[in-house]
Amino acid sequence: MRCIILSFFVALSLVISAQGQIAGVQAHRDLVYVEGGHERHKLDLYLPEKAEGPLPLIIWVHGGGWQNGSKDGCPPLRAGYVAQGYAVASINYRLSGHAVFPAQIEDCKAAIRWLRAHAKEYSLDSQRFGVWGSSAGGHLVALIGTSGDVKEFDVGANLDQSSRVQAVCDYYGPTDFTVFVTTPGYESHATDASPEAKLIGGSVMQNKDKAARVNPITYVTRDDPLFLIVHGDKDPTVPINQSQLLFDALKKTEVSAHFHTIHGAGHGGPGFAGKNIDEMVSQFFAERLKTSSAKVDALATESTADAAMMERDPRKGMPQSGGRRGIPWEVLIGRDDKDKDGKVSKVSKVEFSGPPQLFKVLDQNNDGLLEKTEHEAFLNRPGPRP
Predict the structure, then answer these.
(1) Which end of the chain is more exposed for a tag (fewer CB within 10 A), N or C?
(2) Listed residue (116, 115, 23) closest to 77, CA to CA
(3) pLDDT tens per residue across span 260-285
């Protein structure tokens, strides 16, 4: 509970006004990074109102199974990184319902190149770009990190700019789909209706070549940036072996990487709300993007999710599969969707009327928006409760 209170006061410190503006932050929303492109080719950029000199940039890539989610949540913004002297960007990319892979990584790289092309205009330091994402966003930031020298994913405009980054923070992102879908307890991801299948255009085991192409491990080379990988060992959505495999590949190739396991933590949620995790991530970006003094080599650490917070996890007592207890989506959306956009927000519109810790659990991709797929996944999630 102490960590929940700390996170709550961090959020309050951002002081969102009636106009949706955040005190001390210049917000540049819906910047188009592909001219004449898809409606998802937009990003938001947040800058300190008072800052001197080029700023290091943290780019947030949202999760949502490559089929949901948006740039609107942006955890680095909510966590106060702009006040710490960073610029923060949050990007949309085409979802799997719009186009199959490699559209998603092409979009992420296009956004990075656009940001570099406009670095002078927005006072960004083009040599200090970091990326951070969770779940599907964790997969994409890992792929951004390892494919810096892969030219086939750089398409479109600003090709004179690099899509490389200098730091990668990967929260529980998938990597090797063939191992993923054959891991006991995760076999449902082997079907052609899974998020992974929708991403690559067919079931994983029938499309191993496509699965290899989407795998960040495929592209690991010695000049990749420093990685911080964080995963809960009770994750019911993405098995922890996905992060372990990535860490092993980076270590074998002599890429500096830090792999942190949170014992008892699931797929995001309260297990990731500890102050020690916040400080670890903050230190990672500070050392890599502000001082460039980080020297990690291969580091594996671990912690245990706060027992008091996990005990208050609303998922406890839910059925293991099948039956639905809890508020139906139709009731929730009818009660809390104030602007009738089909989603429930906890960021600027403050729609969700339940307790903050419950929203944190429901918002599985940490983007600040609750969508029907997340709500249904929560009610029907398989596997043991944390």
Answers:
(1) N
(2) 23
(3) 999 999 999 999 988 899 999 999 99
